[in-house]
Amino acid sequence: MMAIKVLLVEDSDVAINIYEKMLNSSSRIEVVGKAKNGKEGLELVSQLNPDVICTDLQMPQMDGLEFTKQVMAHYPTPILVLSNGVQQTDVDNIYEVMKAGAVDVMAKPQTAMGGSSESMQNELIVKIRVLATKKVSAIPLS
């Protein structure tokens, strides 16, 4: 079976390294690219044609919301938003990114805070495997 190709879009090196380590623990997932912001991410989406994209919300140059809108307009791909801005209390952020076309949201793993990294890792891997099965349609920019 082909590995699920994942693109990570995140401005924090620490977070990128954590995600990469978590995802590389699964033989069914391959991190094919990493971008520091939505602008870099868009270029990589067109080159790499990933199966799933994980993006942060707060990034310089192009944030996760604008990135999600651009991806869904031009390269429809299942998107998982990994961000501190999508805790259960951040209803507006969650609503906006879901409306823009993100398939799912997940609060950033708090592994640095001593949270359980194994359950977080399992949740992330399961979400990516589920997202990889989703067919998404283009959402024209309004």
Number of helices: 5
Ends: how far apart? Answer: 38 Å
Number-wise, the strands total 5
Q: How would you write the strand order of the largest sheet?
A: 2-1-3-4-5
How large, in whole angstroms, is the Cα Rg? 14 Å
Q: CATH superfamily membership, which one?
A: Response regulator
Q: What fraction of the residues are assigned to beta strands by DSSP? A: 15-25%
CATH fold name, please?
Rossmann fold
Question: How would a crystallographer describe the biggest sheet?
Answer: 5 strands, parallel
Helical/strand content category? alpha/beta
Low-pLDDT ranges = none
Can you tell me the CATH class?
Alpha Beta
Arithmetic mean of pLDDT: 89
Task: Describe the model.
The structure is a single chain. This protein is an alpha/beta fold and 142 residues long. It is built from 5 helices and 5 strands; from the N terminus they run βαβαβαβαβα. The protein has one domain (4-131): Response regulator (Rossmann fold), CATH 3.40.50.2300. It has a 5-stranded parallel β-sheet with strand order 2-1-3-4-5, with helices on both faces. Helix 3 links the parallel strand 3 (52-55) and strand 4. Helix 2 (38-48) runs parallel beside helix 3. It starts with a strand and ends in an 11-residue tail after the last helix.
